[in-house]
Amino acid sequence: MRFFIAFTSLISIVLALPNPAARAEIDPNTCTALAKNVGNYHYQNFGGCNAMIRDCVSTFKAEGNATHNPWGSNSCVAAATCWGAGSLRDYLQCQDSTFDPSSAPTLDYTNVYAPIVGDCAWQEGGCPITFQNYVDFIYRTTSDLGSSGYPSSTETLRNYYWSYVINWTTSGETVPYTNFNDFLFYSRT
Ligand SMILES: *[C@@H]1O[C@H](CO)[C@@H](O)[C@H](O)[C@H]1NC(C)=O
Ligand SMILES: *[C@@H]1O[C@H](CO)[C@@H](O)[C@H](O)[C@H]1NC(C)=O
Predict the structure, then answer these.
(1) Contacts of 127 (CB under 8 A, 6+ apart)
(2) Region of 175 on the Ramachandran plot (φ > 0 left; ψ -120 to 50 alpha; else beta)
(3) 69 is a domain residue
(4) Closest residue to atom 2 of ligand 1, CA basis
(5) Domain that holds residue 47
(6) Which positions of the chain have pLDDT values less than 50?
(7) Which residues contact 99 (CB under 8 A, 6 or more apart)?
(8) CA-to-CA distance for 141 and 16, rounded, in angstroms?
(9) Is the CB of 64 under 6 A from ligand 1?
(10) Distance of CA 164 to the CA centre of its chain
């Protein structure tokens, strides 16, 4: 955990430096490879994930170039867990090369995080995301998008999706807001 904090602080420091090269242009080959693998995550996929990515991209494009806020969208946040946050960040950069993922607004607490965890979001100190919260979020988002492409089972979600989130955040069986936000910004799982 100490390593994790030091590591993310280091990233923040590096990103804070006025280095114009920090926002690398996305490699066109990366974009081609991603376009062929939309929604495929360690040999897993489900239709709802593709629907999330499609909706995320169309919201992203509709925002124009100046105001991108992927982590204010349920679709983008859900997609980051079912395709990998690194793939999704890169793919969004492929749509708009001026987008700098490290400068995106942090995860929207009111409109995205609180609906995931429920009323305890507003208790002092908030509360972390449980596996059951995650399952509900993925099913709700799939349904909201009018997709019938649900994951094959909740155990699939646990073993092939949630497992990457909790192993990366190293916060135990549940994931607090800050750790989940870090997952969205920095993980490549
Ligand atoms: C957004 O940026 C891309 C290049 O990254 C450009 O092709 C596109 O025209 C821009 N869109 C708007 C609405 O400015
Ligand atoms: C997460 O860590 C557990 C315990 O080490 C391991 O069994 C599991 O396979 C890991 N999951 C992934 C997706 O790497």
Answers:
(1) 117, 118, 120, 121
(2) beta
(3) yes
(4) 96
(5) 28-186
(6) 1-22
(7) 60, 65, 68, 92, 93
(8) 34
(9) yes
(10) 12
- 66 occurs within a structural domain: yes
- Closest ligand, as measured to the CA of 81: 2
- Counting ligand 1 atoms within 8 A of each CB, the residue from 31, 65, 95, 98 with the most, and so the one to mutate, is 65
Residue located nearest, by CA, to atom 11 of ligand 2: 163
pLDDT of 142 reads 98
Measured from the Cβ of residue 21, the count of other Cβ atoms closer than 10 Å reads 6
Is the CB–ligand 1 distance for residue 96 below 6 Å? yes
Residue whose tokens read 């490290």: 102
CA 163 – CA 41 distance, rounded (Å): 13
Pocket of ligand 2 (CB under 6 A): 163-164, 167
Query: What is the number of domains present in the chain?
Result: 1
What integer pLDDT is reported at residue 4 of this predicted model?
Answer: 46
Tokens linked to 54:
């499609």
The predicted model scores a pTM of 0.85
| Smallest CA separation from ligand 1 atom 10, residue | 65
Rounded to the nearest angstrom, the distance between the alpha carbon of 163 and the centre of ligand 2 is 6
